[in-house]
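HUMAN: Now follow token order:
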Amino acid sequence: MIAVKRNYNEIVAMLQCNDVDVSSEHVLGTGAASTVYKGAFKGLDVAVKVFNQVLQSEYIVRLIHVDINPVEGRVSFVLELMAMNLRQRLGQENEKLSLVEKVRIALDVIQGVAYLHEKQILYCDLKPENVLVTENGRAKLADFGISQQSTRGDAKLEGTPQYMAPELTGIPAAAPSYASDVYAFGILLTELDANTGEVPYRHYGYSCFELWPQVRGGLRPELRDDCPPWFRELAVNCMATLPGDRPTVSTIIDTLKAKLQ
């Protein structure tokens, strides 16, 4: 059984697997919990997301309010085919984002995070690779493979080192929180500002043993000299060392919406 999705929480239709032509040789991407293939549905190019195991889909199932019988096999979604991820978009040398486009993408991203938080879900891996961008410049979140329920007492320490908040990197490490998602959003804001597609702290590679002590000591990605003051302030506040000093997602949304008016 395949679910056709329109957005974060709406299922448009339920299809049988043979209703969609899926090319197993054309893999668009893989994540912690799923593989995405290119497919066709009624003459339209689509993305077909196949979850590796039913149990790994527990948060997606709760978000879209649908019951799935594990006996029927793996879960798949038919989604709109997105143009690229945000990392790829930021790396386009001949088509840089305007400030309005950056703000629009940032707002789309934080609204997606806010939706997850409303459902008591922590994203835990916010980064440009997990933000998909449409042809008209709208952004949507993807890959919820390591998302966690905020009320769990045994939350796991998972994520990408460059985007993990300082409190997650100590010994002992704090549990992921809404504030740690906000921190990752702050890192993403610095990448929108840079507009190069380069990974933060690239000289550290992915060595958390070298990077994390520096982050706990205050290391953050730099913003450009011509970064708008309000954008700089928002990014810096999101990356505050203490979780309680970071803005809430609702405050971030209000700030970004005000700049689009």
Q: What stands out?
A: The first helix runs from residue 58 to 64.
